[in-house]
Amino acid sequence: NAGVTQTPKFQVLKTGQSMTLQCAQDMNHEYMSWYRQDPGMGLRLIHYSVGAGITDQGEVPNGYNVSRSTTEDFPLRLLSAAPSQTSVYFCASSKWTSGSPDTQYFGPGTRLTVL
Amino acid sequence: AQTVTQSQPEMSVQEAETVTLSCTYDTSENNYYLFWYKQPPSRQMILVIRQEAYKQQNATENRFSVNFQKAAKSFSLKISDSQLGDTAMYFCAFMKRSDYKLSFGAGTTVTVRA
Question: B52-91 burial, b if ≥16 CB within 10 A, otherwise e?
Answer without folding.
Answer: bbeeeeebeeeebbbebeeeebebbbebeebeeebbbbbb
